[in-house]
Amino acid sequence: MFQDFSDQACPDQGRVRIPMLREELQEQGLTGFIVPRADEYGGENLAPYAERLAWLTGFTGSAGTAVILKTRAAIFIDGRYTLQVVDQVDTELLAPVQVPMNSVADWIVENATEADVIGFDPWLHTTQSIKRLEKACKKAGAKLVACEANPLDAIWTDQPGRPSEPVVPHPLSLAGISSEEKLEAIAKGLDGKADATFITQGDSIAWLFNIRGSDVPRAPLPLAFTILAADGRAWLLIDPEKLSKEALDHLPDAVIVRPQTDLQAIIKEEIGSGKIWQLDETLVPYAVKAMIEATDAKIVNAPDPCLKPKAAKTEAELEGMRAAHQRDGVALCQFFHWLDQMAPSGSLDEIGAATALEEFRASTGCLKDISFDTISGVGPNGAIVHYRVTEATNRVFDQNSLYLVDSGAQYPDGTTDITRTVAIGTPSDEMKDRFTRVLKGMIGLSMARFPEGTTGGQLDILARLHLWQAGLDFAHGTGHGVGSFLCVHEGPHRISPSGHTKLETGNVLSNEPGYYKSGEWGIRIENLLVVSEPQKPAGGEKALHSFETLTLCPIDQRLIAAELLTSEEKGWLNDYHERVFAELSADLDEQTRNWLAEATKPLH
Fold this sequence. Notes:
Structural class: alpha+beta
Strand content: 15-25%
Largest sheet: 6 strands, mixed
Radius of gyration: 25 Å
C-alpha cells in the first residue's frame, strides 16, 4: 500500500538499454521499434511487468511512447510531463516531443526512411493507433511489422512475472445494480447490431461482474478479458486460480470462466465465423482484432458498452462516494493540522509529508490503497504538474513558499482525489493573485448550471477565464471522470477543451484548475463533483443540471486575495466551509476541531 519513494529510473537507463534493444532489433531483422506505456488491457495502471517504457528510458510518467530507430529516437509526452521528462531521460539520446501538437505518426513520416522496418507489439497497440502508424509508415516508405514476441522482453532479463492476486466480490449494497442486470442490459444493447463484443479494460470488467482485484497498483482491478454475446452468454478470460469458491459463486450463472490462452478458440468455436463484432477500436488490442478478422467477421467500431453506464453512478455508489469523502475529509483535516505544526520546523520534507498523509488515511481502518502516487511538491517541485517525489528529488519545506499536495484514496465504498495548495510561511502578492484566480475558476465551475446535452468542453472555459484575463493558463484538462472504488481516471466524460462527451446525471468528475510558475512554485485546487439530476432553478423555465461537491476539506484562506472575489464567490466559499465544518468536526479531536474552526471561518 505505502508509496515507494526510491529512484526507480534515471537517465543512465536509456544509455545502457537502448543500445541493447537496437542489437536485439537487428537480430530480428528490424531497424526500429515502438514502445508505448501500455499493457494488453488498455488501462492506465500497469503491473510491474508491463512498465517497459520506464525500464527502457527512465521515464515514469503515466502516459508516453518512445520510438527507437537505428540512429535516432524520440519520446512523446503531453504537457503534464514537459519538466519531468527532462529530469528522467537522456534528452541527447531521446528527443522529447510534446503531444498533441505533434504525434508519433508525424515523427515517423519525418524521420523514417524506405530502409526502415519498424516493429510493434500487437498486444500493446489499439486498432486505431495502428491505422495511424500504417499510414505514416506508408508515407515514409517504411514497413510496419507486428512482432510475435516483444523484443524488449528478450533483453529485460529480470522482468517481473504476471500478477496472480485473488478476485473478490463487490457487494450489491455498494454496486446498486446486480451483475445479471448489467449483463442483460449490455446484451440487449448488442441485439440487432452485433453478435458479440470484446471488453479489455479492467475497470469495465470489474464493474460488469461486480468484482474487484489487486493486479495493478492504485486501482482495485483484476486483469482479464471478457467476451459478451448478444444471446446473453459471457466469458470471463482470467487465470482460474484467481477465483475462490466465493468469487465463483458470486458470478452470474451465464458467465463461463476460461483462461486467457483460450481466447482464440472462443472467438473461432464459440462465437463462430461470419459474425458481427462490436469493437472499441480505441481500446481493443490490434492482436485481438486480427484474431476476429481471421473468422471472416464484420467489425463495427463502437465505444466499450460499459463506459457510459459505469460512469453514471447509481444512488448506492453515490452514497458510498459521499461516505468515503467524509471519512477522507477527517483524515485530511488531521493531516493539514499536523502540517501547520510541522512545516515551520525546518525538518519536514516532501516524503515525510506524503507518508504522514497516507498514515492518517490508513488510521481510518478502511484504506485499501492510495488511488495514485501522491504528488507532494514544495516550491519549484510543485510547478511540475505530475511530480513524483523520490529520494533524489526530495525537498525540505522552504519558508515563504507553497506546498502542493495532490492525493487520493481507495476505500471499499469510494475513490477520492483532492488537491490543496497551502502557504508555508508568508505568501507573496503574486502567489495570492494567482491562487485567487485559480480559486475563482474552481468556484465558477462548481456553481455552473447547464442544460442536458452539455459537454465538458463547453464548461472548461469557466475554470480558465480568470487566468486568461491575466494572460495565464494551465497545460492540462480541468477535470477527469472518477470511478467508484475503481480507477481514479475514468472516461469517457471529462472537462477539457477536448471533452466532447455529454455530461449525464451521476457522472463524477474532478474540478482542478491550476497555475504553474516554472522553477518556482505551483498552484492547483481540486474537488470532486457529481452531476445532479436536472431541476428548474427558482423562477426558471428550464430544468438544468448542477454540480454537487463531494470533497470536504478547507481551502487555504491565507492565499486568498479577498478583494478579487465577488460577493457571490465569497458566498460560495463560506457556504462550502460551513458545510466542511458541519460534516467533519464531530469526528475530530479538540485540537484539530479548533484548527478546522479557524480554517473555515467566514471570509469577509
